[in-house]
Amino acid sequence: MSLLECRSVMKDFGGEPILESVSLALEPGSKTALVGRNGAGKTTLVRILLGEDPDFRGAVIRTPRLKVGYVPQHIEPPPGISVLEWLLADIEEERERLRRLEHEMGTHSGEDLERSLGEYGLLREAYEEKAGDRAEEQALRALVRAGLDGTSEREAARLSGGERNILALVKALMQNPDLLVLDEPGNHLDFWGLSWLEDFLRGLPKAVLLVSHNRWLIDRVADRVLELEGGRLTEYSGGYSAYRLEKLRRAAGQGADWQADRKRIERLAELVRRFEQIARTRPDPAWGKRLRARRSQLAREQESAAEKPVLDGRRIEMSFRDAESRSDIALEVRGYSKSFGDRALFDSASMDLLTGERVALVGRNGSGKTTFLRDLTEKGSWDDPVLRIGPSMRVGYCAQDRTVFRPDRTVAEEFEALDARREETWKLLKGFLFRPEDLDRRIDTLSGGELNRLQLARAVWLKANLLILDEPTNHLDIPGCEAVEEGLADYPGTILAVSHDRYFLEKIANRVVFLENGKFAPYEGTFSEFWRDLGSARVKAARGLEGRGQSLTRAARGQSSSKGESPDRGQSSSRSLEDRIQALEAEKAGLEARAADLLRTRDFKGAGKVSADLEKLNRRIEKLYEEL
User: Fold this and answer.
1) Which segments within 185-297 are labelled E, that is strand?
2) In terms of pLDDT, which residue wins out, 486 or 234?
3) Going by DSSP bridges, is the β-strand pair 343-354/329-340 parallel, antiparallel, or unpaired?
4) 3-state SS, residue 229
5) Alpha-carbon distance values, 572 to 469, 588, 621 (Å)
6) C-alpha distances in angstroms, 201 versus 135, 217, 238, 483, 524?
7) Are strands 387-389 and 466-470 parallel, antiparallel or unpaired?
8) Minimal CA–CA distance to 170: which of 92, 97, 75, 96?
9) What is the mean pLDDT of residues 140-150?
10) How confident is the model at residue 312 (pLDDT cuts 50, 70, 90)?
C-alpha cells in the first residue's frame, strides 16, 4: 500500500496552470527524486503533498496515521536556544500536552473523561513509538553520528548553513517518520557533508522524497526520478544518469513519431483540399461522400498524432575570443598568509597555476577558499610578490555574492561602465538567456541564478583568459548547470574553480588543489580520483610537499620507489579500469552533447541513433564499474 498518493492534482495561479493532472505514489522504502526547472511548480506540489496548500483540484490520499518529516530548504532556528533544546522542542510540546491531559483526566468525568482518555492514548502511543522518554539520549547520539558532537550546548541559530541542514535532518528523524521530504538538502554542505548525507540516505529504511538539483546526490540515492515539466509529471527509473539517458531516448523516439505523423497528416490535408476542389466542380454525391470520409480520417489522425516533443532550448552562447595567453604561468602564490583574529586561515601557503589548466580548489567549509579567491581578485597582479598573476592574464571573477556588481545599478548600466553600448549588451546577454526587459532591472532584483549568468557574461565581455569561479552553479536548476558546463567546455583559457557540484567539477576540472590546515596540496588527476585517494598513504605522504611543484601523485610514487617497493598489481589493475572508465565517461559526455544538438536541430533520426550508442556505452561503463 502506498504511503501517499496524489491523483489528477491540478493547480492554477493567476489563471495560469501550474500543475496539470499530476499523479504519483510514494511507496514504503522508496527513494524518489523530484526535479524540474526553477519555477516549474516543485515547491507547490510539495506543499500540496504536505497538506499545507488545500487550494487544488484532485485528491491526495495518505495512509492512516502517516508521519511525515520535512526538512525545508532554508533552516532558521529561533535565536537564543541551544542545539539540544531545538532538537527536543517538538518532544517537549508532546510532553506538555500529555501533562495537560493527565491533569484533565483527574478532573473530568463522563464523556469528557472518555474524550480525554482517547486523546491521551493516541498521543501516548505516538510518544512511545519515537521513544520520547529517551529523546535526550537519542539526540546526543544522533549528533555524534552526524558529525556534530560537541555542539549540543551551542546556540542553534549560530551554526553554519551546512550544520543547520544536518541538524534539521536529525530533528525530522527524531519524529520517527514514515516519509522524509527533503528540499535541497545538499545546500551549504561541503563534500564531506554531502558524502555523509549520501551514505545516510542510502542506508535509511524510510521512504524519501528528494527535491534537489544536486545531480550526483540524485544519482547515488534515488531509485526513480519524477520530472515536473509544463505542469506534468513524467517518471523515469533509476538515478540522474539513467533519467538523462532515458529522456534523450524518449525525445528522439517521440520526435521521430511526431515527424512521421506530421508528414502523414500533411498528405491527408492535401488530399482533402483536392477532394474539396473536385466536390465543388462535380455535383456527383459520391465525391461528397469521399470528402466527408477523408475529413473524418484527417480528424482522427490529428487527434491520435504524437505530441511535438518539448525540447530544452536553453543553451548559453559563451564565445570567449582572444582567451589564449602569452604567459606560461597564470598564477604564482608564494607565502600567502591570512588570519581573522586568533584564527589563522592560511600559513605561508604557496601554489602554481599554469596557463590552460582547469583546477578545482577543494577544502572543507570554513577553510578559506572564498577568502583566498576574493584576495586574489582584489590584490593579485604581476607586481605582487605574494599573489602574482601572469602579465597577460585578464581575470573574470564569478563571486558567490553580489560584490562584483553595484546593487543600485541596472544591468545595462553595469555594462555601460565597461564601455559596452546598449545594443552590444543586448547582443551579448541574449546568449546568456536574458530577455530584453532584463537590461533595465536593478542588480539587487536578480535571482542567484541570473546573477551567476550575468557574471559569466561580464567575463566574456572582458575577454577573460583566467576565470576564477566561486560556486558558479549555485542557485541554478539542472538545465542551467548543464548550460554553463556546455558553455565552458570549449573555453581555451585557465580556470580556477571552487564548487560543491561534483558533476560540474568532473566535467570542468582536470587537476585538484586541496586546501587543508592553511596549505595548498596539488593533486594530478580528476576530482573522483582525488576523492578516492583522500586519506590514503598517497595523499598523506604528499601533504608536506605543498608549494614545491610536486603533485600528490608524483610524491606518492617517489615515496614508494625510495623504499624499493614495487607497485601493487591489484592497485595497478584497478587504476587501469578507472582510466578506461574515465575515457568512456568523456566519450559519453560527448555523445550526450551531440544528441542534444541533434534534438535542437530536429534531427530525431540522428538523435535516436546517438541515444542507442549511448545506451550501449552506458552498459560498458556499468560493466567496468562492476569489475572494480
Assistant:
1) 207-211, 224-229, 232-237
2) 234
3) antiparallel
4) strand
5) 34, 24, 19
6) 22, 10, 15, 29, 31
7) unpaired
8) 75
9) 84
10) low
Which of helix, strand or coil describes residue 208? strand
What does residue 554 show for φ and ψ, rounded to 5 degrees?
A: -65, -40
C-alpha cell at 615: 545506451
C-alpha cell at position 341? 583574529
Cβ–Cβ under 8 Å, residues 493 and 395: no
Which of 119, 134, 158 terminates a domain? The answer is 158
**What pTM was estimated for this model as a whole?**
0.76
Q: Does any domain span residue 247?
A: no
Which DSSP state fits 565? P
pLDDT digits (tens, 9 = 90+) for 215-267: 999 999 999 999 999 899 999 999 998 888 888 887 777 666 666 767 777 88
Higher pLDDT residue, 55 or 549? Answer: 55
In 3-state terms, what secondary structure has residue 95?
A: helix
Residue 292 belongs to some domain of the structure = no
Give residue for cell 614508494: 560
pLDDT value at 533 more than 90: no
Query: Does residue 185 register a pLDDT over 80?
Result: yes
Stated length of the chain:
628
- Is 267 domain-assigned? no
Instruction: Name beta bridge partners: 24.
Output: 6
Helix H segments across 108-238? 110-129, 135-145, 161-173, 191-203, 215-221
Torsion, Cα of 530, 532, 538, 539 (10° steps) = 50
Q: Distance from first CA to last CA of the chain, Å, rounded?
A: 38
Helix (H, G, I), strand (E, B) or coil at 253: helix
Amino acid residing at 526: T
- What pLDDT does 547 receive? 43
Q: Break the chain down into helix, strand, coil percent, rounded to 5.
A: 50, 20, 30
Outline where 438-526 has alpha helix (H): 448-461, 478-489, 502-508
Mean per-residue pLDDT over the chain, rounded? 84
Residues 116 and 91 in one domain: yes
Residue 53's CATH number: 3.40.50.300
Q: Alpha-carbon distance 512 to 514, whole Å? A: 6
Q: Using 50, 70 and 90 to split pLDDT, how confident is the model at 39?
A: confident
Full residue range of the structural domain in which residue 24 is found: 1-77+161-238
Q: Answer yes or no: do 459 and 533 share one domain.
A: yes
pLDDT of amino acid 408: 93
Listed residues 238, 258, 276: the one ending a domain: 238
pLDDT of 536 reads 58
Is 549 a residue whose pLDDT tops 60? no
Residue 397 CB-density burial (10 A; 0-12 exposed, 13-18 middle, 19+ buried): buried
For residue range 82-130, what is the model confidence (pLDDT) as tens digits?
999 998 888 888 888 888 888 878 787 778 788 878 888 888 888 787 7
- Residue 414 pLDDT exceeds 50: yes
Please report the DSSP string for 13-49 in residue order.
ETTEEEEEEEEEEE-TT-EEEEE--TTSSHHHHHHHH
Answer whether residue 21 shows pLDDT above 50: yes
418's grid cell: 565597461
